[in-house]
Amino acid sequence: MPSLLGLVPRLLPRPRATSDGDRVVVLLHGTGSEPGVFHKLARALRAHDIRPLALAYGRRGTEDLDRSVEDIERQLLQIEAPTFDIVGHSLGGLLALRLAHRPALRGRIGTIVGLGAAWRGVPDHGSHRLTKKVLGESFVQVKTAEPFPAEVPEGVTIVSIVSDADKVVPSWSSRLGHVIELTGVSHSRLLHEVPVVLASLGVRARP
């Protein structure tokens, strides 16, 4: 049975991948979110002739984590470009890292940029039954008493954009690979740090 949050309709339009550029950047939202949260980043990527693909998965990211990984993988395997990068916010970063370990995607993922990414999960404070019913399976599964292993596959570059004002994902989880530290940016506002994300993807600002 889906969670109550998973039944909430999308409020924002999905960014459309209208660019004809060869480079593809996949955008993965966090738990209880939706593709439309990436509208600013998607617009900026298109302006640089990069094709953004903001994917919907797992009833707003509330379903079982393994099921969400399989859902996203099916969509990624339809991408014609031989390689692509991923930007993941919160849970989206954790799922991107797990996708990088999937045999069918080996060698296809270049860079993963995590925005407050829960690479190693988040603290477990109990109340699982109510959390699962209202917010969904993923909210329970991402909680952990011990950090999840965060091994990076060979050939994949990880960039973590973190903030001292992130009150959702702790620093012991969000720091992996090359770390870019911001000051005073909340967890949700990390989505709007477009220039930092572009730089993390090696995209040069145009004059």
Automatic annotation (TrEMBL):
This protein's record includes keyword Hydrolase: yes
Cited SUPFAM superfamilies: alpha/beta-Hydrolases (SSF53474)
AB hydrolase-1 domain span: 25-113
Keyword Hydrolase: yes
GO molecular function: hydrolase activity
Pfam families assigned: Abhydrolase_6
Cited InterPro entries: AB_hydrolase_1, AB_hydrolase_fold
Annotated keywords: Hydrolase
Entry protein name: Alpha/beta hydrolase family
Native species: Corynebacterium testudinoris
